[in-house]
Design a protein that fits this description.
This protein has about 450 residues and is α/β, with parallel strands linked by helices. The chain is built from 14 helices and 19 strands. Cell division protein that is involved in the assembly of the Z ring. May serve as a membrane anchor for the Z ring.
Length: about 450
Amino acid sequence: MSLFRPSSMLPRLKPLSSKRVSIVTVLDIGSSKVVCMIGRLTPVEASEVLSGRTHSIEILGIGHQKSRGIKAGVISDMDAVENSVRLAVDSAERMAGVTVESLIVNVTAGRLGSETHTASVNLGGHEIAAGDLAMVVNAATRQSQLNERAILHSLPSSYTLDGERGIRDPAGMYGDLLGVDMHVLTADRAPLKNLELSINRAHLTVEAMVATPYASGLAALVSDEAEMGCAAIDMGGGTTTISVFSEGKLVYADAIALGGHHVTMDLARGLSTRLDDAERIKVVHGSALPQAGEDRDVISIPPFGEDERDLPTHVPRGLVSRIVRARVEETLEMLRDRIQQSGYGSLVGKRVVLTGGASQMTGLAESARRILARNVRIGRPLGVSGLPASAKGPTFSTAVGLMIYPQVAHLESHGTGEGGFAAMTGAGGRLTRMGQWLKESF
């Protein structure tokens, strides 16, 4: 299966059909788990769903496996990733009763980078047409210095017309000078190719790649939060991602290579125990906040070896919490600094939503409120039916966000010049086929 397509192909997803039901398959490849979801997207009246949604989503099948071969979002063992993908997809296929050939996948690796570019074009006083919008968007997108990077998302955040800012849709208006502020999210090219290759090896085709922070934000934020300005922090096993939304659009995204697995590793080292035992201790006894009597309570630590003569050791529960808190506070302080350095701290305001598997740690929300100095809530996937009870928590936000993504993909404008996603990864052929695939499905 060739990874290369002509770079002239338009690398953007077409809107979902407003009349036909579509079957969509998504794949969330994380450092701790691989999740495959198969869903039915049914067109509905706008008043019947969440703001910005055009379809209702019913999950038909779900499969998840322990992730292997992924470290901090980067593929370290192609065979292991391929096997995890096969098992997760096979489980979802059996549950849904369908065969999967193509899917949407998330991207965490590749040093995600957010850029904002501004461009303008002279209109000569005539009515703004689609060609004028495409021209100014292309001018802004071309400013991205890609080199060995690929464009994942390219979103017009706002337009200006004759100096008037804050215009959402200038089509049909009259003016002399049309400008646009463009948010372009890029990633290193090589990790994207490796990700696509590992999925191709499982005899599956990648239809679209979506940045993990974008997907988790789509799933965890309510429409008012995305409109007024809010940050979504997705705390996974190997990475933690940040996305900032304002006026309903993604305006900034970032990722750091710290997650829940790092807490587990700290406990395994500090308590001299196995990783599986350290994970259990973290879940049962770990806390991101000091607790009353934690130094009086004693917990049993299983021995590292297999020798039956090795006896478990006993340590104060407070030692476990102190190890956990040290790593959690380091992560939260790094997130606070990233938000401040991004220049979007004022847009975030006082609203932060935590999601992802590691966000469920005891006391984490309270610790985040103190360190981030903002109101914090735990976000769970919204607006999806058919999820089993075990999949309704923050752990599955990214997968649900990938299922939501086709409804907002038409907002993106990658431009038609050299340097778009197709030119950088060769994946444009599959991206351009997604609209056709969605219309023909089911």
